[in-house]
Amino acid sequence: MAQRSKKEVLDYLERAEVAAVGTSNMGTPRQRMMHFGSDDDFNIYVSSMKGDPKVIQWSNIPETALLIHQGPTFLEMEECEIIGRAEIISNKEEREKAIQLMTRRSPIVANFNQIGALDRLEFIRIKPFIVKYRYVPEILQGESPTIFECSENRSSFSSWDDIKAKARAWKEAVRPLSLTASLVPLLLGGALAFSVLHTLNVWLFILTIVGGIMIQAGTNMINDWKDADRDNENAEGIRPFTGGSRMIQLGLVSRADMGFFGMILSAIAAIIGFYLVAVSGWGLVPLILYGLLAGVFYTAEKGKFSFINLAPGLAEFLIATTFGVLMTMGAFYVQTGYFSLQAFLISLPVGVFISSVLLINQFQDAESDAKSGKKTLVVRLGKLKAKNLLIASFIVGYLIIALLPVLGYTTYNIYFAFLSVPFAVQAIRYAHQNYNKTAVDLISGNAHTAINHLFAGLLLVFAFIFNELSIVLVALYFVASLLFVFWVWRYIERRRKTMNSFRLTMRK
To answer: What pLDDT does 404 receive?
Structure first.
């Protein structure tokens, strides 16, 4: 038989119901059976839940392949292989086109449409590079398959698209949301020094922030590298709070690259640290060594002197001192050349609040941690006692803030921090109601705890610059802080809604 026409192949795609869809997983390919639709240009449309692993994979490694294979008997078998590139549809008109097509072709999308839940779905268009049709009897007779090359689709993608895709994966690998843990105490230490000296060395301040953020980003990546096997088994992991970045598990960053670049970032942070020591004084050395050792021991595997397994609460103490006391006093020392009791006391609530973040994030990982021998505080105490400890940590943090002005260690300006109390109240409420439920149920508690740490810290910074800057600059800082908190909140809310959407849909 002669080569098939485009219409014949399109008719076959219309008759077919499902396709085996392949995605790349860093050398480990994955395939899934999916309902699909097609148009007259061989564009293939599929749909999946927002936040689904294959959607994340497509957004970072868009190259994909499909195989449609059907027929009543072997000698009547037809198949079509399509190799192309996936795009998450963002255009409103294109999305509507995909919805109409997939509602007709997919019972899953039809159900989502019926219950009014289409906003929970992502629609993907696969633009073909090559379309190859085969009819088994023809192949057995030595006939060549019918091939359509869509060269115009290849030219529509640039190397810049690939760069942006890889950049998204690496952005997730450093866990950007978690970096506020470093940013807050570093800003606070700088603001406190500014209130004491009435001046600020901007260059040293920037270097301090960059170095602190890099050491945390490097530690995050090294932790993912060392924890890859345990995170593989963690079915309850909730990005961005628990279970690591999952870039290794999704195949978007190799395990070797994760460890290598984590060490590179840590090395750059160490170089910045050596420079700050040379400029500011040797008093920084104990803080830097403590921070480096804390990172090493915190990420240590079980049986290799892991602080998590060594004693109850040691990991929380480590985090509180590193991302509270150490960074605040370090940033203060870089500017002033000395340590102060005031800086130490001011750092305490920040340390308490960040330890609260660590504690609540352990609830979702409790089962996988217990299985792998990782003895976190939630594993040791049980969820009920850990929940009560979490509530107590909020109370202690705000009690310290309340007492410091009364005892004469700072001004009453720090009472601005009480504007963050509503987030703490909500965190306590969600933790109390959902501490022993599913990972998704507790995610609002995770979110409010993280926002509480961020907002309280930014308000403490505001308290120390309040009398040092003009009203315009102070107002700009306050507005910028609110916008930053709002941006983080929206980021978290999008993740929460995505992860909750499937469960809600299934209930309907």
So the answer is: 95
Whole-number Å distance between alpha carbons of 96 and 77: 33
How buried is 472 (Cβ within 10 angstroms: 0-12 exposed, 13-18 middle, 19+ buried)?
A: exposed
| List of residues 6+ apart from 436 with CB closer than 8 A | 383, 384
Find the helix or strand (DSSP H, E) in which 434 lies.
helix 421-434
pLDDT at 208: 94
Relative orientation angle of helices 421-434 and 383-406, to the nearest 10 degrees: 160
**Residue 83 · residue 23 · CB < 8 Å:** no
- Encoding tokens for residue 263? 């060490």
CA distance 245 to 247: 5
32, burial (CB in 10 Å: exposed 0-12, middle 13-18, buried 19+): middle
Nearest 5°: phi and psi at 39?
A: -115, -175
Which residues lie below 8 Å from residue 411, measured CB to CB, with a gap of 6+? 405, 463
Domain ranges of the chain: 6-157, 168-507
Of 244, 241, 243, 248, nearest to 496 by C-alpha is 241
Distance separating alpha carbons of residues 288 and 277, to the nearest angstrom: 9
Query: At 49, is the secondary structure helix, strand, or coil?
Result: strand
Mean pLDDT (10-residue bins), the chain, 508 residues: 80 90 70 89 90 78 86 83 89 91 91 85 91 84 83 69 69 80 93 93 94 87 71 50 62 75 88 91 86 64 51 72 90 93 94 90 78 77 88 95 94 94 92 80 84 94 90 90 85 66 50
Question: Omega of the bond prior to 240 within 30 degrees of 0, cis?
Answer: yes
Decide which of 3.30.70.260, 3.40.1260.10, 3.20.20.380, 2.30.110.10 is the CATH code for 6-157. 2.30.110.10
Which residues on neighbouring strands pair with residue 38, listed in sequence order?
A: 44
Topology annotation, domain 168-507: Farnesyl Diphosphate Synthase (1.10.600)
Residue 479 structure tokens? 């507005």
Cβ-Cβ contacts under 8 Å for 350 (sequence gap 6 or more): 184, 185, 188, 323, 324, 328, 453, 456, 457, 460
Nearest to 179 by CA among 401, 354, 416: 354
- DSSP result, 194-212: HHHHS---HHHHHHHHHHH
Q: Note whether 37 and 45 are within 8 A (CB).
A: yes
- The pLDDT score that the predictor gives to residue 380 is 83
Burial of 465 (0-12, 13-18, 19+ CB in 10 A): buried
DSSP state of 175: -
Helix (H, G, I), strand (E, B) or coil at 5: coil
